[in-house]
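Lab notebook page, bench 4
Experiment: in silico fold of construct C2
Operator: M.H.
Input chain length: 595 residues
Purpose: comparison with the prior construct
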Amino acid sequence: MDRTNHTYSDVWDLDVFFQGGSESREFRKHLDTLEKKKNDFAENALAFHPPQSAKDADLVWKLIEEAKEVMLYLRQAGAFVSCLEAQNMNDRKADSLRGEVTSLSADFSSTFTKFQQQLSDCTEEIWNELLQHDHLSEIRFVLNEWRQKAKDKLSSAEESLIQALAVDGYHGWGQMYDTIVGAMEIEHDGKKLSVGQANNLLSSPDTNTRQKVFEKLEKAWEQNEELFARTLNHLGGFRLNVYKKRGWDELMKEPLEYNRMKQETLDAMWGAISKHKQPFVQYLERKADLIGKERLDWYDLDAPVAESTSTMPYDEGAKFILKQFSRFGSEMAQFAQKAFENQWIEAEDRAGKRPGGFCTSFPLSDQSRIFMTYSGSMSNVSTLAHELGHAFHSYALKPMHTLNRNYAMNVAETASTFAEMIVADAAVKEAETKEEKIALVEDKLQRSVAFFMNIHARYLFERRFYEERKKGIVSADKLNELMVDAQREAFSDSLGEVHPRFWASKLHFYITGVPFYNFPYTFGYLFSLSIYAKALESNESYEEKYMALLRDTAVMNVEELAMKHLGEDITEEAFWEKGIKLCIADVEEFLELTE
């Protein structure tokens, strides 16, 4: 592609980290240094015993700083390999490097777990004295979290064994999924497309194109469904067995603790959504009418309803985002400008790339990288803003200690969705024609339906899958049945044809790092709506307050975060209803525009 007319490159620069891609000698040196740091920490940590008095605080801090170094090197390595795998799914050397990084990570986790358990194995009195130490008091929240988790887990020897077996077991199955999907190709109009490219065609204005591509995708998932079913069963089985050994009865214990939230908060969120689905059903019914169908099928959900749907080349999309970010705050705009100018973004529409999008952080370089496939739709512009929001979150946390930057997925999705909202709202306001306005309002509504219905279906499916998995292996047919039931319920039976093999097609079900990779998206969406509403109400720049909230995302649970920065009790449905009402207002505008 000729890029001489481009202001911004749509291909990222990874050489600034390690030259030479998966064959990089610099990266090999990085891995060697990482291994040495890991081994040095292991030697010192294994000689560590439970603190006997507050005098041990300096030694504790020294070991924490050593562990921090290993974490930074691991994250840098993991981010680089993720980028290599995503930009070229046929990069076999990257697959090999992934195995190496996973193994190093498992080794470190094993030693780190032992250190955490030794550190936690002291009296309450000594623990409280340790937390008075100048440096340790700064990471008090994280240390208390470690202590609680150590109490909840098995002995350090047993936890080390689990982590060692997980490399070729648990994580191995997750990598198997990526390998299978990477080899899949969809033929359309004489071209071979990756899964990601084929998925982009599901937003085509042509019904026949959408239907044909959906059927080809569904057939491809069906051809491999036994492999996917086996993979999902082994992932679920491994997780359930670990829970059982630890004596954890509650399936949601790990995902809720990971997201630093209470079950009451999750129940309040889904409860509020379930009570207010009717307006979104009305939207889906109107959309069906507009595209000449009695009921929408799954492949119609992303179909455009307006004939003159705007498209933006990559440069124009970048400039639009920069313009809207600058209206919110100078730091956000300057940060995004830097990302575009310094080639932090891989957006080229080409074959061989991984489907989907992500943002990953390179902590040793104080940079992020964003991955997506940009084909010019306004939805692509929103996705780009979304990923820039993730990167800005990492930027906002730069002043914090490394251990105080580990925010959970639900609040991670808050920053990204907030950035997306700024751009989506601006696009609607700047629409020049009625057709354009309809298209842009509908783009916002597609996201509301995704968060309130599609992700609700994923959550319902996953909970029911685990209940079935407790009884034994769940067949592919049963998985299809569970998915259909979940989609019918979550969409209030408003769709015609649904997507039975969605469980096979969605990468999120196969991610080993985080269980229940679904509800945090909906949390982030609604939570960010409340922050956005506060920003709109503010008579002065809200950017400083927003960044203060982001800096607290890794040092308190979400209930405390909401109370401190928003003055809201998020265990009550009333909080979630405020955000839902903003989305219902979009439905009302859409219905009015399309009368």
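Observations: The mean pLDDT is 93. The domain at 21-168 is CATH 1.20.140.70 (Butyryl-CoA Dehydrogenase, subunit A; domain 3).
Next step: discuss at group meeting.
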